[in-house]
Amino acid sequence: MTINPLAPASKQPTLGDYSDAEVQLANRNSGMPLEFLQHDITPVGAHYLLTHFDVPYVNSPDNWTLSLSGLFQQHATLSIAALQHYPVHHEVVTLECAGNGRACMTPRWPSQPWHYGAVGTARWTGVRLTDVLKDHPLAGGCEELVFSGVDRGADGGQVHHFERSLTLQQIDTLEVMLVWAMNGQPLLPQHGFPLRLIVPGWYGMASVKWLDCITAIDHAFQGYQQVRTYRYRRDADDPGQPVTTLKPKSLMQPPGLVDWSTRVRLVQPGTHRITGRAWGGCGIDADAGQGQGLVRGSGKGLGNELGNELGKGGGRGIQRVELGLNGDYHDATVTPSEHRYGWSHWSADVTISEGAHVLSCRATDAHGIVQPDVPTGDYNGMGNNSVQTVRIVCDGSVFP
Amino acid sequence: MTINPLAPASKQPTLGDYSDAEVQLANRNSGMPLEFLQHDITPVGAHYLLTHFDVPYVNSPDNWTLSLSGLFQQHATLSIAALQHYPVHHEVVTLECAGNGRACMTPRWPSQPWHYGAVGTARWTGVRLTDVLKDHPLAGGCEELVFSGVDRGADGGQVHHFERSLTLQQIDTLEVMLVWAMNGQPLLPQHGFPLRLIVPGWYGMASVKWLDCITAIDHAFQGYQQVRTYRYRRDADDPGQPVTTLKPKSLMQPPGLVDWSTRVRLVQPGTHRITGRAWGGCGIDADAGQGQGLVRGSGKGLGNELGNELGKGGGRGIQRVELGLNGDYHDATVTPSEHRYGWSHWSADVTISEGAHVLSCRATDAHGIVQPDVPTGDYNGMGNNSVQTVRIVCDGSVFP
């Protein structure tokens, strides 16, 4: 053997043009075209998709089971029909890939090269994980639940299933769902058919697809997708901090017409109404202590009031959006989402004169955190919430 | 004005890594992940998508109209409800982007950088264009119909709607459909909601989305998407030949597990069953003369028998598929599609030993045309049907 494909790839941040492997990923994984920001609920097929390995082929949900193993008081195997006996919830949730914006960073970590489109908002149908756990109590000593998908492949020198964990404290705080439908239809194969996790207010990696196993463990999970990636890291040697809640972010629908080759937008002189969306995870953590007693019988805490006020993530934690023309910002009108975890709508008028310009937008959350003008820098390109910039050329003569 | 975005871009074939504009296109336009070759009908949201400009926002189909203008005996405006009074057909059609494979070419035309995934098979529901034309006869002198979408943008120095034409002879021969549903559901916004054209057996550019106007003209249409692109060209000065029917092509579902970073496939030693699909436009042209009298009262011609024999495109025009291991090919078993315009299934066993290998597959159509080993070269990267190659590493020790 002259090739060991599982030797950890000697990847390092890169500059300039994109490799063939990056483009292969970009062709497989699909971003939401930004004109879809017009839709409150992203239409099926336009929601972003990041698939780590191959999409599993599942013919029918009838034989699918979710196993509860490890430190449960009793192991169990639940069919989807059994899960559907718990109270059914419909939750509008904005999801974003933790790597969204990676392609806008310099240097750039060589991975899926998202610009802005790795986001989407769907209406998910399923049950609360905590409702299921009431019937299936954990054994003493349990610290975390590990959520395993059936998808499997290699990354960083390890063959593994896609697996992520949440601590009991996080499960107590977050309104984690087990879902089987998206926008009123059974999950599509690529969105996790027939069962997936949704972790509202967190970046998308936590919402494990093709979920077939929950394992209760008494230690911090050390799986590849938990400790080797989805970490905020300064450099190659930094073990980093886990990627969790969404940072505040806003996006605009680029105005005017697109030029295919340059991706520049063409607009006519005059006043334009620019619209977009904004979201974040602000308020998610504030609810710590509100839980249902899963963890050490915790009752309501001070954080709860702040959590209610902020709306627990989604668009309600956004208190301000500004639209910039060549770096000169003014306030947009923000319409909060009707849904706890959905993005908010915003709009602003801007008068554009002939010439080349840059539009940008930035959100501020309820804690006063403002999107940065430039990426704050992360070794693996995680959580880049720097402002979107849109190059426009205003020239009335080019419109027939 | 120091910038004229509509000056024809000084694009030329390029080598090596990919530009930011190419990656922006790859993020917007989505390929079908190749594991979806398992599905006879590509699930919604996994079918390839190439959107020239922005996806139009259409709230409801109720007010949508299709106007018939130009050299019709009477101009008309048809609602979708009116179209639905004609006989409704459900047709399974394999569509492929004419630029599929462009990223595998050296040099490479800088545009949407597809590798293999710009293909999909859907069940389309609609009516035959020829049925509509019987009620809305053309005036004398008409030579072509121009199909216009509402999508608009700039390319090659021109602001234009996406528009394509077909000659009356082509309309008489091809089973062109006006469709409002895909896989049993209303068209998704990104697939042309609420109305689009489907031209079975041709590359995808002919199947105009967001169709709102058909104009009958007495000359050869000179629109940008007809004469400036979607041409087979040798060099920048070659006016080229129009891209029309699908060339024979086969794809395999890559076996084993994927390594995220390198995109290499990992397999265990032993015998593997490889499966895939094959399709082409063979037989489409053979039907010339079979038409319904739209053109000069033409009746059945000799071509008709060949057309029936070959199945008029799709998978039935494929007579052979071979699977290659390091360039050594052997025959696969081909199962013809049940549908005239759908892809055929194929499978072949291959024994793989430890080491690095390349798998490939190639189809031969009923005319004896074989997929080339290497791209035949086209200036704009159109119609590359050279064989798919999949790099695999066989190492039993890496599987836990």
Write the layout of secondary structure elements.
Two copies of one chain form a homodimer.
Chain A: H1 20-28, E1 65-70, E2 76-79, H2 80-83, E3 88-96, E4 119-128, H3 129-135, E5 144-155, E6 158-167, H4 168-173, E7 177-182, E8 185-186, E9 196-198, E10 211-217, H5 224-228, E11 231-232, E12 241-242, E13 249-252, E14 257-258, E15 265-267, E16 270-279, H6 303-310, E17 318-325, E18 328-331, E19 333-335, E20 344-352, E21 355-365, E22 388-394
Parallel strand pairs in A: 1-10, 15-22
Antiparallel strand pairs in A: 1-2, 3-4, 4-7, 5-6, 5-10, 7-8, 7-9, 11-12, 13-16, 14-15, 16-20, 17-18, 17-21, 19-20, 21-22
Question: Could you give a quick summary of the protein structure above?
Answer:
2 copies of one chain form a homodimer. With 400 residues, chain A is mainly beta.
What does this structure look like?
2 copies of one chain form a homodimer. Chain A contains 6 helices and 22 strands. The first copy, chain A, has helices spanning 20-28, 80-83, 129-135, 168-173, 224-228, 303-310, and strands at residues 65-70, 76-79, 88-96, 119-128, 144-155, 158-167, 177-182, 185-186, 196-198, 211-217, 231-232, 241-242, 249-252, 257-258, 265-267, 270-279, 318-325, 328-331, 333-335, 344-352, 355-365, 388-394. The radius of gyration of chain A is 22 Å and the shape is globular.
Fraction in helix of chain A: under 10%
Net shape of chain A? globular
**Biggest sheet of chain A, strands in spatial order?**
14-15-22-21-17-18
Largest sheet, strands/sense/barrel of chain A: 6 strands, mixed
Distance between the termini of chain A: 62 Å
Oligomer: homodimer
Largest interface: A-B, 74 and 74 residues
Number of helices of chain A: 6
